[in-house]
Structure formats: C-alpha cells, structure tokens
Design goal:
Length: 81
C-alpha cells in the first residue's frame, strides 16, 4: 500500500518534467528551423537605437496610425467627446 502511494505521488512529477522537456525541445527546433540567416542587432545612431538585419524588413510592417492632434486627449489617448 505504501509503495502505491509513493508511485502515485511521483507520477505527476514525471509528467511535468516530461512535458517541460518536450516543450523545450519544440522551442529549440522552432528556433533552429526559423529560416532566418541573420539574427539582427541593435545599432545606436545619434539619439536613436535601430534594429539592423533580421528576418523582418521594416517596409513589410504596417505603418503606425496617425491621429489628428486636436482630437486626441494627451493623457488618456482617447478621442475627446
């Protein structure tokens, strides 16, 4: 009876460790096969820091939405009524 309790207490631990190992392996495989030749780096240019290189081109990203300055509350970010 005591042996059965010990086995029952260890099973959740073994399951958790197995799950953690499987997820870690999946993460490493995903990163290894991402298809990005250059990881990219941060470069300081004057007062700004830019990300140079990498898999994503800045032209591929959508531009930030512009708002009219008189319709935006500076502190809340929402439009004024």
């Amino acid at each position: 009876m005591a042996f059965a309790r010990r086995v029952a207490a260890v099973i959740p631990l073994v399951g958790a460790v197995t799950t953690a190992v499987a997820l870690t392996g999946a993460a490493f495989l995903t990163v290894a096969h991402a298809g990005c030749d250059e990881a990219g780096r941060f470069v300081r240019t004057g007062d700004a820091i830019q990300f140079v290189g990498g898999c994503v081109n800045g032209a591929d990203l959508p531009s930030a939405p512009t708002a009219e300055a008189e319709n935006v509350d500076r502190f809340g970010g929402s439009k004024k009524p």
